[in-house]
Amino acid sequence: MYTSTADAITADQLGGFFVGWPHPPSPERHLDILHGSHAVELALDGDTVVGFATAISDGVLSAFIPLLEVLPEYQHRRIGTELVRRLLGRLDTFYMVDLCCDAGLEPFYRALGFQTLDRGMGIRRTHVGQ
Questions:
Q1: In this predicted structure, which of 26-35, 71-80, 111-120 has the lowest mean pLDDT?
Q2: Which of 6, 7, 100, 114 has the highest count of CB atoms within 10 angstroms of its CB?
């Protein structure tokens, strides 16, 4: 099941995400992320959140997709694809929708209509995020 709101989600439903992150956010911080996002899409298996995608935006011209996560045991079932498609549907009036990803994920996002842009830069503070 998919939903476009985190209103009924609790921190107890958000375990197991951010695999491999040096300091993953706690389930409580994860819930804050969902509530603070411009748009969110969630995949549920019963009461368990098994995937989510978030967008932040100025509400007028641009949006950015910072997070797409699917629990490892639910990957390769097209859940991530559906989450991004649903999120893009909600962002279809924006001039630009950007994201950053590792090179190995470019084919996944390219299949969803994204293109590799000329440049992107960022800062990763691996000690922050708990």
A1: 111-120
A2: 6
